[in-house]
Write a structure and sequence with these properties.
alpha/beta; Rossmann fold; four-stranded parallel sheet; 5 helices
Length: 216
């Protein structure tokens, strides 16, 4: 009975599509898409970093800056400022970048309750876009699966200045062969508002976002 119903639905669907195709007739040639938006950078390196920080501040994200070799100390500073002592990390996050003191819990396919029991997540990023203040994650071994940056209330993300681009098209190009992989774009802490513009944080992800920018 179920198979018969499926067959009837499939046939009816095809009948409708055939009528649509007949009504449309010959398809017109595709018109070229106008791409008059900015695709190339125009800012200096310093201006690009300043713009990125300005955008992050607009989103109420806290920003830390450091140089190579200072990552562990800066991670410790950020976590101490939030009072965080038990942090989730992706399985491939570099161990030498982790400070002593806090407990770092590798994500060995933890279930959602175990993830929620931690105080936040620390991840790397694939790229960042200054113009939009966005972090791009492709969920590599240093960035972790989507659940790590969705369930915890706090996200600490580390990005290097050589990963920072100015425009969105540059950010997409930075993905390279990973453009068909699952991609998460993060622009500030999670927040939403209803029709009366009542703002609520943490509905679709972490309420709190800190970003460490490492100069290279």
């Amino acid at each position: 009975m179920v198979e018969d119903t499926r067959c009837e639905v499939s046939t009816a669907r095809e009948d409708i599509l055939q009528r649509v195709r007949a009504a449309i007739g010959k398809q017109a040639a595709d018109e070229p898409v106008e791409r008059d938006y900015r695709q190339t950078p125009s800012l200096s390196e310093g201006e690009k970093i300043d713009l990125f920080i300005d955008r992050l501040h607009d989103y109420n994200a806290q920003v830390y800056r450091c140089g190579p070799g200072e990552e562990a100390a800066t991670i410790a500073e950020a976590l101490a400022a939030r009072g965080k002592t038990r942090i989730l990390i992706p399985p491939g996050f570099p161990a030498h970048l982790l400070p002593t003191g806090p407990t770092f819990v590798p994500d060995t396919q933890l279930d959602y309750r175990e993830i929620d029991a931690t105080e936040g997540a620390l991840t790397a990023a694939t790229a960042a876009i200054a113009m939009t203040g966005s972090l791009i994650l492709t969920h590599s071994e240093t960035e972790g699966r989507r659940a790590l940056t969705l369930i915890p209330d706090y996200h600490l993300c580390m990005v290097y200045t050589n990963q920072l681009v100015e425009t969105v098209p540059e950010g997409l190009r930075a993905l390279g062969g990973r453009r068909t992989s699952p991609v998460t774009t993060i622009a500030g802490p999670s927040a939403t508002a209803d029709i009366e513009m009542t703002r609520v944080k943490g509905v679709h992800g972490p309420r709190v976002l800190d970003v460490i920018i490492v100069a290279v």
